[in-house]
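Amino acid chain:
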Amino acid sequence: MHAPARLSSLLLALTTVAHAAAPVDLSGLAPGSEITVARLDTGDLVSVEWPADATGARAVLQLNLAPDRPLFSVLGWKKSGDTPLQKIAENLTPLTVLTVGERDLARNGWMVFFDKVHTRPSQRFPAKLKPAALKATSLSASRARLSIEGLSAGSFTGRFEITIFAGSALVMTEAVLATREDRRAILYDAGLVAPERRATGYAWIDPRAGAQTAPADTPGGVRAARFRSAALEFAEGSVAIFPPPHRYLYPLDFADNYGFNWLGRNYDAAAPGDGIGVRQPPAGDNRYVPWVNAPPGTEQRLPLFFRFGPENAAASLAAVQTYTRGDRFADLPGYKKFTSHYHVEHTTDLMNEQKAAGSDAIPPRLREPGFVKAFRAMGVDIVHLGEFHFGTTPRLAAEERVKQLRLMHAECARLSDEKFLLLPGEEPNVHLGGHWISFFPKPVLWVLNRPAGTPFVETNAAGETIYRVGSPADVLELMQRERGLMWTAHARIKGSIPFPDGQRDTAFFKSPQFLGAAWKAMPADYSRDTLGWRVLDLLDDMNNWGADKRALGEVDVFKIEPHSELYGHMNVNYLKLDRLPRFADGWQPVLDVLRNGEFFVTTGEILASDFLVTRGAASAEPPPTLSAKLAWTLPLAFAELIGGDGTRTLRHRVDLGDTRAFGGRDFSAAFPTTPGLRWVRLAVWDVAGNGAFTQPIALAP
């Protein structure tokens, strides 16, 4: 009668010796680290503990390195260092699913947007972790990384990394994967799953309907969620997840919320149970859908952030919103927030609806357009449009063209007030080569063609000045007369692949009216620790040419509504302006600040104000010191001092691993001694790839 019991004991013993405990290397931990890591007596368990907030509470993460067991054995909480462990959640599996497609490299290599990866075959590979070894390393006294070897997803192999940040219950997980295969474009879904179904419910914020909850047995499915976040609730607390705010979403023409989150029971067969996570819709907006570059041999880092604690799911969601300031751009004394390049086509919509109604009245839905509501809610002060983005626009006759411009100017005036300035602008794409943006300091009437024998400028019966441009010389003359600015849109990509490089010897490029180029996080590549290197490299190149050019932030998307997922695609320019100009008075100060480079560009999480460059008097050519006032939400990663000598671009990194979440400091660092340095600039990046950068400052000879 005791045979079954003896058999069970034998099976248990065989199971126990079936695997050897994975090696654990703690030699990389600094003696003074605030984060403690210890192997527990069971052999497979590793415990990580760190200060979670200013009250003395401590967060605990226990890892289980046994094969086929949930990696996160315990998410725990201690009200102070000597209080009992409160288990928030147990046995959570981190989920990563890699989708691998084929990149078309024919047009512009890896510098690509015009690709439709979603139209070609692809495969989904759940990442499988078989812990082979764990190594813990201190990145600073307040930051540590645990790296677990043995991760694979299809032809991609690598490791799983966990980064802990003292001072908060914030954890960053990363599947770090590389392949030898060429022409690969990728997407990834990620999340946390409780396979033993111990959750009590879910919470998220619907972009239209607001705060939402669901019971634990909710079937797994896709959700459109604000802040790209969802929360999983347990009896003793909750955990909320979110992706890198700007790095996660690949570039698209439309900023709709296509359902970037998932939640519920059994969402993915690879990890059944109650779960929450993020996802990237493979079809995007079903136009150009480039996905993310994964060149052979590059380590693609696929992050997911989560934050846990004893509060309920709604409180966890409120906490993670603060990492993006609630998807709002913070006010900064002495600065105004300016954003550019939007094809909302409000003027065209209004013209069409007025024509259909046979009335000049403004339809109710356009009296306060959705895009204006969205920008106001995000704290934006100045919006520069890119209207009439149609192939027929350059061919319009003067009468029709002027009619459109008058209406755009009138609508910009109507929708502006003392707190918000909507400014006319276009992407004309004629005469200069490539795609470019126009910006005038007041309403200007100009026609984009000039038939033979037509004067460059004339005054009509109403006393209006009308320009006609038919050549680069005409465009430059117009910009000089009206004190306007122009710059390359999406430089070196899209319709500007050879520009502005191919224009560097032209009169218009050399003129002060040609500002430079516009910056956007495009293309995407998760092996990079910064965003938008395409235009940052160009900015450095232009100034090494001696061109004294700028790079302002652009967004380049189409229709926008309050429920759009705009923040993930967005950046903003902080212009050094004390007050907002009135539309009726013109907005020359905005253009002057851009031309003078008195602004910084940011994704929103990092502020880098009051940038200064100084030189000491210790030698004939002392190295310059770069300083700025920094403020941030997510912990910072590094600052980069960039300069050029007319031939080379020189870089010097300053590690900022000592920073905690939600901080500020006066930053100052000297550029290494470099003979012949002509210009310098500053860039600052956080652990999620969010960034801020200043404009180059020329150094006196």
